[in-house]
Amino acid sequence: SSSSLSSRAISHCRSPPDHLVAMFASRLMRSTKMMVGVSIKDIQGAKQAVRKAVQMAQPGDKIVALNIPKLVPEMMLSSMNDPGDATEETFAALANLPSRAGENMQGQIKEAAEDEMNLTGKQISIDYKVTQPSGDVKTGLLAACKAEGASMLFLGPGV
Q: What stretch of H or E contains 44?
């Protein structure tokens, strides 16, 4: 009796239940879009988030690394006593600071993603985007997820 029980158990283990086969097949048929929120304030967390997204991604999935800069208009003039004394070059340099910092951050995120893909042996499509600055980054991030059709959102812990 124990041999018939073990043979039934073995035969059952060899073919997964139909619902598991259907779930696996449906997973293969669709790709998942994942959104990774990245921020200059938490580059280490953003790198960890993109690594986790690469680890969880399957072939055909897409990852979007998105930075929504925080809108802080007073930051532009906070270090000047009289903005009238500033030259056009000073304003141009101040205006380019966020984009230069963003490019540096984006390079670090790309490097982390490429390292993780090499480590896992995966090739995943990753887009890097920067939106217009927003006063409400959380709402902007959720709106971007909806607009992109992302089904997963990865974030670092923040600071």
A: helix 43-56
| Alpha-carbon separation of residue 39 from 13, 43, 71, 81, 100 (angstroms) | 46, 6, 13, 29, 13
- Residue 28 to residues 25, 57, 140: CA-CA distances in angstroms? 5, 12, 30
129, 66 contact by CB (below 8 A):
yes
Nearest CA to 133 out of 93, 97, 83, 81 is that of 97
More confident residue, 137 or 5: 137
Does the pTM exceed 0.70?
no
User: Cα separation of 63 and 54, whole Å?
Assistant: 8
What tokens appear for 4 in the block?
Answer: 């018939």
Residue for token pair 């670092």: 156
Category of 136 on φ-ψ map: left (φ > 0), alpha (ψ -120 to 50) or beta: beta
Average pLDDT, the chain: 77
Q: How far is CA 57 from CA 9, 62, 66, in A?
A: 33, 8, 17
Q: Which among 148, 156, 112, 114 is positioned nearest to 33, based on CA atoms?
A: 148
